[in-house]
Specification:
five-stranded mixed beta sheet, 31% helix, disordered N terminus, Transcription Regulator spoIIAA
Length: 150
């Protein structure tokens, strides 16, 4: 969380700042300048024999457990195809890459497929920078993933 400087130290008669014994110099605010913090939601649906995990919001270290829980639930169903829909994801950092690579490794180990529905350009750029666009199977939407399954 970003630290925001709080300047509430009293001044003396000459305008010099005096710091009390326990001055608060930094106050932690979860989302400075925003009305609300973004969260992460992840839903799980069964569609035509595949399992779709749809993710929206911001995927980072603070929200990683949400998608990890959902992917864990999906893996217990042992679907032949696991579709990870990132189309409504607003942000993803390297934590998201680690989680998705682990899900891909689990699917390959169990002779299943992980198909990733491409996220918006800023999200997909993370995959491109890490050169994972060749390693993972990307499609444009869930229907394309289901069609590829046939």
């Amino acid at each position: 969380m970003p630290a925001v400087l709080v300047d509430d130290a009293p001044s003396d008669q000459e305008g010099r700042r005096r710091l009390p014994r326990r001055a608060v110099l930094f106050k932690i605010e979860p989302c400075p300048g925003r009305l609300a913090c973004m969260a992460l939601t992840a839903t799980l649906d069964k569609v035509d024999g595949a399992v779709v995990v749809a993710v929206s919001g911001e995927l980072d270290l603070g929200t990683a457990s949400v998608i990890q829980d959902r992917l864990g639930e999906a893996e217990t169903l042992r679907p032949p195809v696991l579709i990870l829909d990132l189309s409504t994801l607003d942000f993803m950092d390297s934590t998201g890459l680690r989680i998705i690579l682990a899900a891909d490794a689990n699917a390959r180990r169990d002779d299943r497929r992980l198909v990733v529905v491409r996220g918006p350009a800023p999200v997909h750029r993370v995959f491109l920078i890490a050169r994972l666009d060749d390693r993972l199977e990307f499609v444009d939407d869930v229907s394309a993933a289901l069609a590829a399954e046939d």
